[in-house]
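1st attempt posting a full record on here, be nice pls
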Amino acid sequence: MSRSRQLPVERIDQIPTAPSAFKAGVICVAVIALALLGAAVGKWGAPVLDAFLSDKGDLAILWQKLHVTRSLKATFLAIGWIGLACAAAGLAGLWRQRLTYHFLRLVLLAVIVVMAAFVWLVWQGVFAIPREGVEIHGAAQDSTTAFKMWWSICWPALAVIAYAWWLQVMLRSRSVFAAYTQRAGAPMAGDRVLENVRTHGRDPRHRRSLYASALTHLMIIVIIPWILTLGGCVEAYKVPKGSGNPVVAMVKVVQPKKKKKKTLSLRPNSAILFEQPDLDNSEVDQVMEEKTQVTYEANPNAMAGNIGKGGGTEGGWPEGMDDYKIRFIRLEHDGEGWDDGMNESGADINFLKAFAQATGFKKIAREGESHSIALLRKYPDDGFPPFVFLTGNAGMGRVNSNDAKILRDYCLKGGMLIADAGSAQFHQSFVHFMSQVFPDKPLIDIADDDMIYQLPYGFPDGAPAFWHHGGRRALGIKHEGRWVVFYHPGDMNDAWKSQGYTDVTPEMRAAAMNLGINLVYYAFNQWDDAVSKARK
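the predicted structure (as tokens):
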């Protein structure tokens, strides 16, 4: 019985390969595409780098000291010139000659070299940050944050390197080489690479294990962290559509009744009194106590109704939506009590109900919602939340510089951060956090006659102090004449709770609700202005 003869692998490798004009043309078009990328980097690379360093003073000084900035700008210029070379090589490659073939290979090699130089320079500059102890937006950096920064900057360059290397592999295949030289022959190095990719090489088990290892590292180091940054989906925020003209409802200031202090004496006509003087009960202290015991009483007949913008009578905002839903979004952080009062105590829903009752906007969310700071960037330019709420009972934990930038961008484009201190520890942590978000804009005192205290409810003495964990005055951050941050240091939301609050009188509860309504009204007005500009 005869046995079929099998050709050895070496004989299979010697099978001639026909020229492929199609593959050669595809490579030329791909190289011309690199030319467009090179031109863009050459023109905008340096300005983008300057913008990146503009709000990072310490990093800019460090990179200037290490000559990283100058070297990167030289690299951008080199990429621009190589882009021109890619255009010339891609067009010349359409005329298939041996010289144009080598021109294509040389240009692609230059692309790989200059992109590798860019990646190396960024690596040196980024990992110098934790080594030199440089902070970004007030936050200390470690090797993990440095790697994330490096990856966010360099992944396009790494993709270009892989792209150019693959084109080199295609050029080193016999079918493409034959298209330029008209010489058929045995498979070349590119053919063997392609065949190894397809068949896992001469040792499939070893090759598959290498692929699996590479894929696992790629998943853990790159893909999973990238997926985690996506966070999830968000629903566009919808403000009530219409136009309104708010009615001012003044909040009555109730002065506490002064109690007469009893004194103790041996007998009425005695010249000696046995009253012990209280060093902590001076006249100045008594006046201060009377001032700090001021409470606020809302007139039950004063309804703010028809609030909005545009001068109409039905209430609402011109850039809003008919199918609106007023939502209360709070921000999550790693610290304790970030959702203080927002679950079983229902502070957020209690406030929304009070807002609906006072304004007539009945379509409110049935439950509160929360998400990470990172998700703020997913909202559309005409559907971001007018305000977000932040609170806590302890420190905020570590907040990375990327989240600080996202919150800053949200505030600057028209949003408002309403923060509320649940403890003295949170106050200290929040003040530090704001120095990261707005390093050039400190928290400042909000004057009693500010517009934020006037509509729709009037607070002649500014924000009520309540428990004053971080002082008795509300603070804020202003940008271009608009409050982008309102910070109450006295646990305002404690007075919104259904349970778990401490010493909250009906007057304090009404004042806290009305102050929140003022803040939301102000935020909606600023949102309307920002969305109007965005839609134009």
